[in-house]
Fold this protein.
Amino acid sequence: MKRIVITGLGAITPIGNDPDSFWDNLVAGKSGASRLTRFDPQGMPYDMACEVKNFEPQEYMDRKLARRTALATQFAIAVSKQALADSGFEITPENGADVGVLMATGGGGINEIEFATEIMVDKGWRSVGPFVVPSAMANAVSCLVSMETGAKGPVMTSIAACASGHYSILDAYYFLQRDEAELIIAGGAESIVSLLTVSAFGNMGPLSKRRDDPEHACRPFSIDRDGFVSGEGAVAMTVETEEHAKARGAHIYAEVLGGALTGDAYHITAPDPSGDGAVRAISRCLKNSGITAADVDLILAHGTGTVLNDQVESSAIRQVFGVEGGRMPRVTSIKSMLGHALGAAGAQSALAAVRALETGIVPPTINYTPDPELGVDVVGNVAEKINPKIALVEAFGFGGQNVVVAFKKWED
């Protein structure tokens, strides 16, 4: 088996539009939540979100392309170019066929459909623009990255709801093991903060209603949790084999050990209360990565802050590590600061895991008040230096799609 490593990072998030700003604010416990600015909330009781701020697409693409692409695609292009620059790898006509793009999303350009529909209802069918479909299609987040960077290897878009961004990283691991590329840009992008989507989530029930205090609304694993806050953003990482990275003298952030995918076969939005799918995903990740439960120091949890999700995820962690490990790893959820970015969420957590392994510092779960019934060891409110060697990242999506990936501190 080849050693697969992370060599470049890119981030556009509610708390920073580059990897260093993102990481510094994450460790500082800074919340990205605030009142909605993208649309008129019309008196809804959940008028808050973790929106990306001060993003200028023209820094990464020309004005014409920016006008014709959804915000999620703009985010994807930006983080991919950041990651490539950070990795020190230049895509050329000679090597482009060996570079892949595996960018994920949950909703893609769903906002474009909403906006186009409003115009059509108001002005008729002739008013619908010719770029609505290419802008709205989910695979634009990968295809436009390919076009903008010159990557002509495998191009694929994972669409697995809240687990999407993490699927792409595990897919990259497998593609590289099969020699289908020499380097892959992998990650997730999302921007579906709109009247339609926020209304739908709100009416479904999982959004926090603490509208009086947005920064303290999302409280994963806390006894007083009442739901998540909508988020957005993107993360990309360059993933390659150790041999390829060393041959070009690249800086290596961390190693990808492996992972696992499972299904709940239970409900279109709710997790299986038994935690069966999550338990199998964690256990198979350990097996596929060649590690044991006792080896794991840290879990970057899915941790949405909803009552049921945190309960089921905590149960799954206890079932695996209480039985197999004899000790509980530390657990943290960065959604307390970033909100739930759906298709980008898993990639955001993966970047946090990589930096935690590199620096030894674990970002906190802010707004945390312990819930004794959950039985997990949360890094609460303040970052801690625990020097983890192995970290798991968990992502569980609507429809029962579960993915867990193991990362290891880089050791040559």
Q: What stands out?
A: The first strand starts at residue 4 and ends at 12. The mean pLDDT is 95.
